[in-house]
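Practice problem 4.
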């Protein structure tokens, strides 16, 4: 039996108009009423039924992308590259790209629900997947089209494009050990991100292969920004027994680490080595240029958009899950340690 707005209205004791406006997040409905209505709608399976109705309606020819951030991060070169890749491919197919920002959490899921229920987009592109990803759980549960840049544990059938971060970080480990480094510090983002778990696993396994254990006290948590990388790197550098190399799990934190090292009077590439991951365009122009793992962010944006449009149109995918092979870009931010530890 299909649940209607009338059914929800009867359950919560509100008018049909109030329930409708609550579901569409109108400002003239109190937060308490919105919460009451949404809870009832979820319990009664209204969202799923609403989605079945939307799938029978005319396509919007619009791709949705909700940037999961607490602040304006469009200046982040990673997102700039990724958005350009999505937008160019969407335009090739005559699709528009609807971009918005929303911090992770309850409000984020409500934003997805609103865009689904209001028929604003035909599908979503998800970025920076999480170990426990409510966005993907929600979209998957209602059968709404999406493609992710990244994997999620336990969701083996979801469509995604990702880079083999484990292998990329093993390349970093091999290279640093080859240069002579044995004491390595790491600046990592929160392990809620699946890419972070893969990169940490690859780094640990790569070092362990050479008989080196990455000590917990040498792994500090950053926030994926230059500022976060600077602050965490300064903590590592100011220790009496500092690492000879700092591995940052993205380029922006690595660039922050380079600045910290230079402010501390160290010569990057000689007194201390720094590596990143992503190969954003800026990494070529740092002083010195940054050693990093390349992933084709623009092309990945192209790929996830192409896959999503095919799913929306009901076309078969040649590959539902694409895992790309990384490559190591060696530049001047790395070198042999000034004093090789005994």
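Answer key:
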């Amino acid at each position: 039996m299909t649940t209607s707005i009338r059914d929800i209205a009867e359950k919560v004791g509100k008018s049909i108009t109030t329930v409708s406006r609550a579901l569409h997040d109108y400002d003239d409905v109190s937060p308490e009423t919105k919460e009451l209505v949404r809870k009832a709608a979820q319990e009664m399976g209204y969202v799923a039924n609403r989605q079945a109705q939307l799938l029978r309606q005319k396509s919007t020819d619009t791709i949705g992308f909700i940037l999961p951030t607490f602040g304006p991060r469009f200046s982040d070169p990673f997102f700039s590259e990724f958005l350009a890749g999505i937008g160019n491919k969407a335009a090739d197919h005559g699709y528009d790209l609807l971009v918005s920002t929303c911090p992770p959490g309850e409000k984020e899921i409500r934003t997805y629900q609103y865009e689904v229920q209001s028929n604003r987009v035909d599908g979503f592109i998800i970025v920076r997947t999480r170990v426990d990803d409510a966005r993907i759980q929600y979209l998957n549960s209602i059968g709404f089209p999406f493609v992710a840049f990244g994997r999620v544990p336990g969701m083996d059938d979801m469509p995604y494009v990702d880079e083999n971060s484990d292998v990329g970080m093993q390349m970093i480990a091999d290279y640093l050990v080859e240069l002579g480094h044995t004491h390595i510090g790491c600046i990592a983002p929160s392990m809620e991100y699946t890419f972070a778990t893969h990169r940490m696993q690859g780094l640990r396994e790569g070092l362990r292969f050479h008989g080196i254990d990455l000590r917990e006290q040498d792994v500090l948590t950053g926030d994926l920004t230059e500022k976060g990388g600077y602050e965490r790197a300064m903590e590592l550098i100011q220790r009496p027994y500092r690492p000879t190399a700092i591995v940052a799990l993205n380029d922006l934190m690595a660039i922050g680490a380079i600045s910290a090292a230079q402010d501390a009077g160290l010569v990057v590439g000689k007194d201390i080595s720094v590596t990143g991951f992503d190969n954003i365009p800026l990494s070529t122009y740092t002083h010195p240029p940054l050693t990093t793992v390349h992933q084709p962010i623009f092309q990945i944006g192209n790929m996830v958009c192409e896959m999503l449009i095919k799913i929306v149109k009901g076309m078969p995918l040649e590959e539902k899950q694409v895992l790309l092979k990384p490559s190591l870009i060696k530049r001047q931010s790395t070198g042999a340690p000034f004093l090789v530890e005994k």
